[in-house]
């Protein structure tokens, strides 16, 4: 096959490209230039879109012995990922930009262009496995190395995208990948993994949002109030500085009467009100979600598990897929958690699993506490 290897500049994508070559594919390496100003993105081996990363990817392609190109997708990335990130926080939600990047950039814009250029598949260094099911559909499964499993952020991929994807590292533990990189002479063998959000240069999300959003309504200042009593405990400069479950940085000045820590329980971006309360106020066992994306056949009812954040725990759950009006259809997903969760915010992705297989994902719109005795 003709394979396009997406090379971020890290060890995983470099070894994935090398394995694709070793498997007999005709491989071309590409690096995605995602920043209009690379110096403003994370550097020091902590990002995936800097000039430093581009140079690391080029050197790795030279060692592997494949052609290498840089594709400028910075405008598309800014519109589909960065602007989406700002809009979601402005609406009081907590987005996952890496998941959105996979959906809109790596497996949409890149794959579409690759197919248009005559490539058969795109290979990446993600830790996930692909299998062909008894029904002939390509299934997305968790990686063998569960500590590095990235199937959560790939839960947005459709069957068409999975059919044109390769994940060469899915069956390999991360330490073995690093040893293989060293044996292949790849200088990125010891390069640290990327962390946090690549386009927030210093890791200060709240500061970045304050600078970018400014006085954009409804992110004006407001009150921090006690969820139980309604008492105003303090003020803030913008709801974008908060997320559900947050404990630090509340700047309340005085402890709760019982001495227990307070957590952010709710964010009301229109009024600017941030509600805080005890940890137990974070517990939820019912989720409503929209914008579902299914990896294969659309389910109507499923007893399985859901994962609610990257590298988070699995929760046993009952999943129902409904129409917008509550009847048959596929626009709305309702999830009952048999294992309650804490600190779940609208905007997060709920990724549905059947065993190790990813069924699909949806974006959480609301949470609720139903079984108060559980």
Automatic annotation (TrEMBL):
Cysteine-cysteine disulfides: 101-198
Annotated localization: Cytoplasm
tRNA-specific 2-thiouridylase MnmA-like central domain span: 213-277
Family matches, as SUPFAM superfamilies: Adenine nucleotide alpha hydrolases-like (SSF52402)
Superkingdom, natural source: Bacteria
Alphabetized GO MF terms: tRNA-uridine 2-sulfurtransferase activity
Keywords: ATP-binding, Cytoplasm, Disulfide bond, Nucleotide-binding, RNA-binding, Transferase, tRNA processing, tRNA-binding
Enzyme Commission designation: 2.8.1.13
Catalytic activity: S-sulfanyl-L-cysteinyl-[protein] + uridine(34) in tRNA + AH2 + ATP = 2-thiouridine(34) in tRNA + L-cysteinyl-[protein] + A + AMP + diphosphate + H(+)
HAMAP family (UniProt xref): tRNA_thiouridyl_MnmA
Family from the record: Belongs to the MnmA/TRMU family.
NCBIfam families reported in the protein's UniProt record: PRK00143.1, trmU
Name of this protein: tRNA-specific 2-thiouridylase MnmA
Organism (species): Nocardioides taihuensis
């Amino acid at each position: 096959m003709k394979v396009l290897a997406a090379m971020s500049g890290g060890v995983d994508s470099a070894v994935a490209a090398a394995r694709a070559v070793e498997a007999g594919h005709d491989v071309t390496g590409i690096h995605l230039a995602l920043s209009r100003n690379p110096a403003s993105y994370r550097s020091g081996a902590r990002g995936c879109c800097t000039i430093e990363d581009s140079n690391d990817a080029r050197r790795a392609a030279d060692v592997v012995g494949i052609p290498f190109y840089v594709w400028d997708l910075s405008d598309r990335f800014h519109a589909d990922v960065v602007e989406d990130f700002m809009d979601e926080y402005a609406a009081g939600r907590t987005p996952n930009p890496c998941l959105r990047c996979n959906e809109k950039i790596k497996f949409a814009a890149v794959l579409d262009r690759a197919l248009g250029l005559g490539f058969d598949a795109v290979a990446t260094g993600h830790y996930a496995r692909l299998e062909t099911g008894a029904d002939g559909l390509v299934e997305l499964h968790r990686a063998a190395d569960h500590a590095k499993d990235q199937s959560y952020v790939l839960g947005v991929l459709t069957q068409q995208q999975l059919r044109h994807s390769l994940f060469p590292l899915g069956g390999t533990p991360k330490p073995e990948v690093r040893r293989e990189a060293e044996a292949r002479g790849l200088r990125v063998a010891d390069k640290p993994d990327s962390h946090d959000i690549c386009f927030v240069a210093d890791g200060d999300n709240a500061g970045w949002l304050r600078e970018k959003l400014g006085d954009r309504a409804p992110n004006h200042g407001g009150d921090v109030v006690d969820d139980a009593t309604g008492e105003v405990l303090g003020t803030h400069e913008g709801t974008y500085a908060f997320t559900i479950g947050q404990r630090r940085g509340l700047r309340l000045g005085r402890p709760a009467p019982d001495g227990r820590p307070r957590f952010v329980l709710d964010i009301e971006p229109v009024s600017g009100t941030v509600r805080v309360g005890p940890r137990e106020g974070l517990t939820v066992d019912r989720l409503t979600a929209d914008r579902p994306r299914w990896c294969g056949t659309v389910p109507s009812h499923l007893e399985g598990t859901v994962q609610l954040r990257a590298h988070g725990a699995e929760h046993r759950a009952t999943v129902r897929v409904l129409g917008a009006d509550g009847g048959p259809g596929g626009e709305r997903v309702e999830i009952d958690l048999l294992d309650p969760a804490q600190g779940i915010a609208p905007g997060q992705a709920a990724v549905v699993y059947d065993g190790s297989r990813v069924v699909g994902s949806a974006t959480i719109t609301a949470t609720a506490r139903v079984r108060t005795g559980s």
